[in-house]
Fold this sequence. Notes:
Blueprint: E1 5-8, E2 10-11, E3 14-15, E4 30-33, E5 37-38, E6 47-48, H1 54-61, E7 65-68, H2 73-85, E8 88-92, H3 100-103, H4 113-128, E9 133-136, H5 139-147, E10 154-156, H6 172-182, E11 188-192, H7 201-213, E12 223-225, E13 228-230, E14 233-237, H8 243-253, E15 259-263, E16 281-283, H9 293-300, E17 305-308, E18 321-324, H10 329-340, H11 343-357, H12 362-374
Parallel strand pairs: 7-8, 8-9, 9-10, 11-14, 11-16, 14-15, 16-17, 17-18
Antiparallel strand pairs: 1-4, 2-3, 5-6, 12-13
Helix pairs in contact: 7-8, 7-10, 9-11
Amino acid sequence: xGNSQVRHSxxxxxxxxxxxxxxxxxxDRTLHPVLGLPAxxxxxxxxxxxxxxxxxxxxxxxxxxxxxxxxxxxxxxxIILSKILKIKLVGTFxxxxxxxEYLANQNVPPFLxxxxxxxxxxYICFVFNQCDVVVSPSAWVAKDIRDxxxxxxxxxxxxxxxxxxxxQEVSDEVIKKLREKYGLGENVLLYVGRLSRxxxxxxxxxxxxVLTSYSPARIATQSVAGGxxxxxxxxxxxxxxxxxxxxxxxxDLGISKDVIFLGRVNHSDLPGSGLFEVSKAFVTASASENxxxxxxxAMSKGLPIIGVTAxxxxxxxxxxxxxxxxxxxxxLANKISQLLGDxxxxxxxxxxxxxxxxxxxxxxxxxxxxxxxxxxxxxxxxF
Length: 383
């Protein structure tokens, strides 16, 4: 469900992940687009696909493992094919679509949250309990889905980010032009991601408003020009359904001059854009994250992280940033002020970020997945 594809890769009869990095591996890696019906009413750009026709391809190809990354129709098709063809099945749990942050996006009335969430959790448990192994990107999520009723073996495999381009140097000229273009001072905060309600961006904007109310004696992030107290600038990179309401909120809060909506930036352009280099910290108020790649990429650029104590984010912040209470704009503002007010601590946190990011590299994730594929229990799940 979504823009779906099927990938295959082989190494002398066994699954492989990177033919270029291991001797004896072939380059038989093919991406097969799967046709689907547009379903924008579920989520922008969503498509429904139920590709049982893959039965004939899979029967001829004889893969060792089917691995799905969705809980929708594609997952159901993968389950059916794995049972018929007796192929081991792996599923990765990515999203909390059954929680109120996402239900609000679908305009589900609040009084129905409990009922809808309960029904969706039952469905999610049914889907993943058909697997031989369930993959969770974080230990927190692994425990949570276990507590909700997924009883099949759960293995933690962190999300892998391709960090190869994020180590590139950005010229002083690029950084200077970016500062001049948007009138940036020294204190700049960066957010990269989808602009949607579950991301808690309204809390982030309200935290920025709180900072403007701090007295000069309390705020550690001020710079003075012409006697005026200046709050940090916030760069929002991304687009999404909440774009309009967030711009209106910024105006209503009186902070529109401090919030810069940059819109969508191609992922390939991000490493050399200078956006990380002009920023003092990556900040998010989202309580819905599993283990976002945007945070890992910011870590690889040496940015400290300001987030909230919720779900997988807590496992990404360990000596390399600060965590605020969820949905608490005052606490978030305090954490921003604390980090930007101590340059020595901020630089140390940035160095820790850069080191920690290597634990989430694409190559390490590939190695962990390959090991998992080779050691899947022999028993087949049943309906």
